[in-house]
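Run log, item B.
One chain of 680 residues. Sequence copied directly from the ordering sheet:
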Amino acid sequence: MSRKGWLVVTMVAAFVASSLVGPGAGAHSDKADPPQTRKDAVKEAKQEFYRQHHQHGPASGHLPPVSENVGFIGKKRLTNRADKISDVAVLGDYAYLGEWAGGLITPACRGGVHVADISNPASPQKVNFLPSHAGTYATEGVQALSVADTGFFSGDLLVVSNESCTKQGIGGITLWDVSDPLNAVKLSEDGGDYTNGDENSTNLDPVAHDSHSAFAWQEADGALYLIAIDNEEGLDVDFFDITDPRNPVLLSETGLEEWPSVMVDAFGNFPTSHDFDVRFIGGQWLAMISYWDAGWVLLNVDDPANPVLIGDFNYPECDAYAGVEDVDPRSCPPEGNAHQGEWNEAGNQFIGTDEDSSSFRLLPIEVTEQTTGTGTASPQPAVGTQYEGGEFGWTVPVATLSPDGVLNGPVAYGGYGCDESAAIPDASVLDPFMSGDPNEERIVVLQRGPVSDPGDPYEACFFSIKIENAQDAGYDAAIVANHHVGSAFGQEPDAFFCGGQGHVFTITARGLCSGHRSLHEMFGSPPNYGTDSNNPGYPEADLNSSIGLVGPKIETSSFFDGFGYSWLFDAAPPFTIRDTVAMAEQLQIENATGKGDLTVHEVATGRGPDADLAYYSWYSGGFRVARFDSDSIDEVAKFIDVGGNDLWGVQLTDKFVGGRRVVALSDRDYGLYLLTYTGP
């Protein structure tokens, strides 16, 4: 995901975000009436975020095929459509691969879980498909585990987290009995968080909140628990008792709002729980939570009804990689984007992955000249005023602008830029304010959303819809400014978020994002953050009635800072960083565009004979293997198939070929891969 600029979800339940993987949550995604409470606004904005999570868009090329110290064992096609396969889980002779909405804008968005027999790894076979509820699909929360007798259940359990894409969809968790994978039995699909912002409230939502990921574990006394993301609330870490998997029970909700000591210390200040690893280490049950720009958060979960914060990983002052191995002083603070991770076998180290699909970092957007005359805003920011911002990883990079890689020119206000919105004014509105310099660009500023805007009561549209409508109106670039909820109702007025691509189109424009304050100040309007606790609203008629208003001239540029990489750190406070690893290709500027997503995604750490190996799914970077010890981690193997890969999930199997472990990977555009490390 590109530039996770965002807000610090602090004391107000203001966790929101915009486009990454699945459509909006539950029955609420298609509603026409705007929310009337702050809680509803937060929920709607979080739905907007997860609707485009993992939406990187189509890769416009790929790295050449390669196989170094990797043995190809087998593969099985499970889809003929791009972006349809999500996570992978393995248990015994079977692999389970999630199917999700795949581009989201499709005639039918229903997903499910493909079941593949891998008893012969050289010839895996699809043997079943477990459909999701109507209007629902599976993303990162696909896990299979053997369960000892709980008093209610024993056998093999499949955990699937749900995200919805129509009003018929559901959220929460679906639990399957896969003791016989060919005749799986659905145990429940109603487990989830129904609370409306308050776990003690009796005002429950009709559909469980969407959940992007989940992880289950069983304790020695037989009790079975589950931790899951809540896509819709500020308290976004939910714990469940699933000892009776037919009747899951919500035990507790927690999150950053309850941990004031946890700092968000990465570029963009975007926090969201995302993935989990739970282990019994040193006589206690521990949960490590990947928390995006807040790094990794460690909890004691001996009592899941009362999780206790132990500490959190803080990002260092600057990025470890900034396009080259020497740190660029402009790469401060680092990107962040803590996505997923696992403990090593001993439980004393943790390997985490940062998902960053934008290879450029935007420098501040600076006001260079005030415009005057008919149709211009007043007042305008002073010359030299700067606003932090980001760059969409799927639009044309600012750095490609000739001759100097600088985006500069006057800005016009274009509203929301959705198909249902008032039309974006033609770029000719800026002609009277152009200098005549052929290197000057026409720029439109749009607003993210709409979310909770009584004047525009339709569902927030994809960032890609906004960018396409802007370029169709003749603009060279579009800046999408954050909305009220994205500013944490004014607590983070400069928080920005550049989300993913939600649909396919020919991209010619540059795409940027900025904070909500910049939107108002550029067009002469006092910043408004909708702080009324009863109705956040968007009482900014001065802006909504001023589409076509011309603001100042601005200028910005970017620099190459590579893609997301992986960390090795001690798994106990103070979480000392031991090393990082990145693949060489992602640090080369010639691969910045046109080679797909070269960010790391997930890691699985070895056990037993391969306990010193980390296996990675690296999106278009393919399959990567690194060897680590107490102080260092280094790449030792790589594989990209002919035609390229788009690898999402990675899991160990208990299969060995030639004494080497077979590793299962999910390819979003293909299906299942089975590979093994063959190096020293």
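Observations after the first pass:
- Confidence is low (pLDDT under 50) at residues 1-36, 55-59.
- The helical segments are 38-50, 463-472, 516-522, 541-544.
Flagged for discussion on Thursday.
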